[in-house]
Amino acid sequence: MLSYQTLRPLIFKLNPESAHDFAEILCKSATKIPALLPYLSSKFCLEAPILAQEIDGMKFYNPVGLAAGFDKNATMVESLCALGFSHLELGAVTPLAQEGNEKPRLWRHTTEESLQNAMGFNNQGANPISARLDALYPFVVPLGVNIGKNKATPQEEALKDYLNLAQIFSRNTDYLSVNLSSPNTPNLRDLQNEAFVSELFSELCSIYQKPIYLKISPDLEIDAALRIADSAINAGARGIIATNTTLDYTLLSNPKEKGGISGKVLSQKSREMLRELSLHFRDKEQRVTLISVGGIMDAKEAYARIRLGAHLVQIFTALVFYGPSLVYRINLELKDLLEKDGFNHICEAVGMDL
Prior knowledge:
Strand order of the largest sheet: 3-13-12-10-9-8-7-4
Order of helices and strands: HHHEEEHEEEHEHEHEHEEHEHEHH
Helix content: 25-40%
Radius of gyration: 19 Å
Number of helices: 12
Distance between the termini: 43 Å
Largest sheet: 8 strands, parallel
């Protein structure tokens, strides 16, 4: 059988966005082939009590989820679930459909195992995406939606976009991820301030009764990040997703002039932000869920994030470079690492290196 590493040079001959479109076609086609998804699930879904957790009322049979950005329009949910993810974060979704930024807007940095994207929240809009989720929900694993404002929405009306999305997705998702940190929508990161975050989460939590998380930028100064995180938690957020992509172009040897960077070169920045958040919230009375994303390419890095306080981890770029069996391999190796270190359950390892 051909391995992904054998096929990857052929796949990488396609431009990155075309390769992603091809993957979407495969995922959509897989649902129409009898018995294929159960077969894939038998190969890629690892169920082990040591990895299972209940967090914020949701059940996760392992800690590895899909980060936002891969399945923007909720067209690949069933096939991605068969690859072993414990949860899927869809989107980013905006109220109205939008094309995103001009192409090319996605680049591989192959030797550095990283991507650079300037996509700009391209998606089909909330209503058709919500209709797809209506047909699936409730689903076998938790489904989250990453929400953002439309590019054309003025800053002073941004709040309305987020509240509209919370209302639309209140019936067919398990959690929301609030995106104020994408670098590809003009001025969006300006909304990462304490006042707006506090007002936003106070109003969101009156509309959406399930968990809501704030996804933050790795480029924030630590003190600012902690203040913003406090604002979100104090206003009702259940946790923080750290981090989005970075605009630190010094991480790449040959960066493009626009777009956020994800993948292996983001590991250190994302890990440092997680550590600071974990230390900050460690002694708080209220439990704060921390989800780590950014540069997690293997089980060793996933385990490091868990030991630094992550309750869950998410991947995206690693899937591009290592293929569909990656989730299974990470979970299998995580199980071995936990057992080797004498842990009876993954929750015992959370924060052990702080």
